[in-house]
Structures are given as structure tokens and as C-alpha cells.
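Memo to structure team: turn this sequence into C-alpha cells by end of day. - J.P.
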Amino acid sequence: MIAPNVPALFEAHFGVPMAGAVVNCVNIRLNAPTVAFLLGHSSSAVIMVDQEFFPLAEEALKILAEKSDKNYKPPLLIVIADENCDPRTLKYALGKGAIEYEKFLETGDPEFAWKPPEDEWQSITLAYTSGTTASPKGVVLSHRGAYLMSVSGPLVWGMNEGAIYLWTLPMFHCDGWCFTWSLAALCGTSICLRQVKLQGSEIATISTNLIDNLLPEIKNIAYT
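Reply from structure team:
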């Protein structure tokens, strides 16, 4: 997944594991050579990319192809459309053969009988360090680890059932500290932001009217 905090990224934390695969949320601030390394190291078979970051994915795939052997098979490329973005980027991605995300979902089987993992220590997600000193290091999270973190987070922060959560933390950072799954467990509501551009007064207005839970640093802005 190469995307900011959009609903598709949240959905991937459920749909991908239910399909028996491992989700890898890529830091959108990385450059193309680093993203190419991640895609190659993880042997990614499917890439879902937000239309804004399609050029990044395209360049990374080009680098990966150049460094791979003749048996290299490019991954399935799916583009996530967003009406808030320049429509030309979506048109370009589709012209390059990418499949639109919603169209891809329509090809699925509504009656698909998903199965839980046979072992709770099986991997659910793969993440990477930023690679500031060397090549990024992979970090694997198990189903057990994700469960414990997603349950303990709300207990520590005192989140109640039906909590409303403003996503200022990138979901690509440790799967949003596992709050992706926490919100589902609480029957909560996620408010997704592509970018955090709000001023302190605007955040205060939102939090007063809508938000139950924000990150501590945002709370300090909102309530002072």
C-alpha cells in the first residue's frame, strides 16, 4: 500500500489479512529508490497506490525492473481514486494499465469464506524502518501482536465504545499504532485526512464538535 490516510488504506488492514496475505504500508515520504528496495525485498505481488503517488510507484517499479533478472514479473497495480486529487493523475494511471480500486473490489466474491490464521504467530503486516543509515530493515507483526496492541491501546487511552478518531497519525507508521484495528473493535468512527494542514483553531473546532480521541500533541493544540 502506497497511500496517505484514506479509507482504502484502513480497509486494507482487514481485507488483505482476510485474503490470507500480508499488508505492507509504505511510507509515502520515501523516495523512489527506497520504495523500489522495499517492493523488491518484500516480493510484493500486488501494489495498491493512491493516485497522487502513482508517479512515485511508477518510478520505483521502473527501478526495480531494471535491477531484476529476466524472470521479473511486475506486480498487479491498483490505483486508488480520490475526487480531491487532480483527475489527470488517475487518467494517466489507468492509461498505464492500472486497475481502479473500486473496480477491483467489484471482481471479488461476496460469499468468500475467509479463514482466521492457523497460528496466531503468523504475519499480518510488514513494516520497514526509514533507512536513514542503511537499507531499511523489515519488521514483521504477528496476528497475536496486532491483537494485543489493538486491545491495549484503547485501555491505556480510555477510549470508549463508538469512539470517533481523527487520523493525524499516518497509518503507515506501525499500522497507525494498531489503532486501525482498535477502532473496529470499539465500533468506532475513523475520520481520515490526506494531509494535516489544519490550524490550531480549526482543530479545536473539529475536536469540540466531533472528535473523542486525538493524538496527545494534537490535543495540546486543540484545548489550549
